[in-house]
Amino acid sequence: MSRPIKVRRIACCPEANYFKPRGIPVVELEEVILSTDELEAVRLADLDGLYQEKAAGNMKISRQTFGNIIRSAHKKIADALVNGKALRIEGGVVAIDERRFSCQGCNFEWTLPFGTGRPTGCPQCRSRSIFRVLKGKKQSA
């Protein structure tokens, strides 16, 4: 019996989740499914240039698990590119790391993924009087 899959932390979900070769109708294409945790591993290692140990820490998994995920992701991406297949991004056992903020001016609350920087103001009323919400408490941002 295999071990249960541990939840992997990701910073955000992709805005685009489907890529296909140009000029070929979707109905004629085979698909490769890339999970959201595999995409996060590619982002951390290849785009952000993090070493596997640091990237694994960001995802709250072991370095060996990270290595297995990134190897699987690279194989799937190569298959899609080399063999002209569509690439769909979906699924995976993930939790999105987010920070919650509240505006003192209008009481609007919103979330932002970790690593996106400190917000400069409320997205609704533009007030600079914003606070971070942690476990039911408000903290200054």
Can you tell me about this structure?
With 141 residues, this protein is an alpha/beta fold. The protein folds into 2 domains: 88 residues, Arc Repressor Mutant, subunit A; 42 residues, no CATH class. The protein has 3 helices and 9 strands, in the order βββαααββββββ. Strands 7-6-8-9 form a 4-stranded antiparallel β-sheet, with no helix packed on it. Strand 6 and strand 7 form a beta hairpin. Helix 1 crosses helix 3 and helix 2 crosses helix 3. It is globular and about 55 Å long. The protein starts with 7 loop residues before the first strand and ends with a strand. The C terminus is likely disordered.
Write the layout of secondary structure elements.
Elements: E1 8-10, E2 18-19, E3 31-34, H1 36-47, H2 52-59, H3 63-82, E4 86-89, E5 94-96, E6 98-103, E7 109-113, E8 130-134, E9 137-140
Parallel strand pairs: 1-5, 3-4
Antiparallel strand pairs: 2-4, 6-7, 6-8, 8-9
Quick recap:
The protein is of the alpha/beta class and 141 residues long. It has 3 helices and 9 strands. It has helices at residues 36-47, 52-59, 63-82; strands spanning 8-10, 18-19, 31-34, 86-89, 94-96, 98-103, 109-113, 130-134, 137-140.
